[in-house]
Every structure is written in C-alpha cells, then in structure tokens.
Amino acid sequence: MPRSSPTGRRTGRPAVTSTRAILDAARGLIERDGVDRLTVRRLAAKMEIGTTTLYHHVQGREDLLVLLLDEYLGAVPRPALPTAPRERAVAAARVMRDALLACPWVAEVLTTDGFLGMLSDASVWVVDVILGAAIDGGCSEEEAVWLFRNIWYFTVGQILVLAHSQDATPEERAQRAGFAGRDPEALPHLASIGARWPSIAVRDTFEDGIRALVEAGIIDARS
C-alpha cells in the first residue's frame, strides 16, 4: 500500500495514467470479473488513481469498451479474400462475424449508436471490403451502404442472440424454440414442423443468410 511521506503526500507506487495502462487494467477486470462489473469507479480503485484522472483519458465506460474493442479488431488478421464480388462480400462478413463472436463481451458495445464510426481505420477494413465488393458487383455507393447495413443488422442480431444464450449448447438453444404440440388448426405450419424444429434450427445458417442478402442486393442494383 502507498505510504504517507512527512509532507503528507502518498509515496510508493506512482499513479499510472497512460491510456495503455488503463486499457490493460480494464481488460484484466473484464477477464477476472466479467464486463458487467466494469465501472470507472472500480477501474480507478484497481489502479489506485482517482476517477478524475481516468476521465482525462476516457469519456466513460462506453468509450472504454469501444477503445478495447477497437484495439482487438485492429489486430484481427486479414485473410486472403475471393476476387469475385459476391464471394468476397460473403467471406468478409464471415470474418466480421467470427471476430466479434470471439470477443465475449462484444454485445455490450454493439448496441451503441454509431458504433462503427467510433472505430479506427485498422478496425473497419472489413466494412470497406464489403462496400467495395458491392460496388464491383454493380451497386452504387448508396446501394452499397444499404447492403452493408442489412448485413450488419443481420450479423449483430445473431451475435446478440448467441451472447444472451452463451451458457447453453446449440442443441439446448434450439430446444427452447421448439413448437411441439401446437394447434394444427390455428398454426398449421408450426404444428407440422413441431418437434422437428430444434433439429432444423440448430444448423448455423449465417453464411446462407449473408449470401441471400448479397445476391439480392447486387441483383437489385443491376435490375
């Protein structure tokens, strides 16, 4: 613990106030206690500095999480991508989804309005790739943005559902969504599928969904 000097000032370990040290400490807190326990007050206490000192480097908890995710995404390797526009867009979307899924607390950040615009260039390369693929496929810049937004919402939706079901296996998640025993007169199609729903729903259809969005977006642009 820091000691008091004859002048009344604390001595011992000096306060560390670099952004690098703050991010490292925040990551340590998340890994130890989970993202729900991360607060500016707890982080300041862990670092033995005042909350005011932290606010010189980060605007708050949300800003801190964005900085952490920005750093993480900026280090994601860029794989070789297909040259065909549609396949390139699908592959880039898969890279984006897999990278975000690998960050266990990402759902906390994805609901931030304008999240992507807060990231650095190194973190949004996949956005540029998808836009470029759409434009190469015949989309205007406006249409490319619309296509990306649809891909983004589809991707975030899956991530949020999985994040809130992370303690369950894919089979358990599918089982919860079963429709066995439904009234065939009121819900003929659900009743017909019924108990087969879990075995059908367990399949990861992310790439199929992205491919459908890409196909529709590029075809519409050319029609």
Distinctive features:
mainly alpha, 12 helices, 2 strands, about 60% helix, flat
Write the layout of secondary structure elements.
Layout: E1 3-4, E2 10-11, H1 19-33, H2 40-47, H3 51-55, H4 61-74, H5 85-101, H6 107-110, H7 125-136, H8 141-163, H9 170-176, H10 188-193, H11 197-201, H12 206-222
Antiparallel strand pairs: 1-2
Give the overall pLDDT as a whole number.
85
Main sheet summary: 2 strands, antiparallel
Computed CA radius of gyration, to the nearest angstrom = 23 Å
Helix content: 55-70%
Number of helices: 12
Number of strands: 2
Q: Given the C-alpha coordinates, what overall shape results?
A: flat
Unreliable spans are: 1-14
Q: Can you tell me about this structure?
A:
There is one protein chain. The chain is mainly α and 223 residues long. The chain has twelve helices and two strands. The chain has helices spanning 19-33, 40-47, 51-55, 61-74, 85-101, 107-110, 125-136, 141-163, 170-176, 188-193, 197-201, 206-222; strands at 3-4, 10-11. It has a two-stranded antiparallel sheet with strand order 1-2. Helix 5 (85-101) runs antiparallel to helix 7 (125-136) and helix 7 (125-136) packs across helix 8 (141-163). The chain is flat, with a radius of gyration of 23 Å. The model is unreliable at 1-14 (pLDDT under 50).
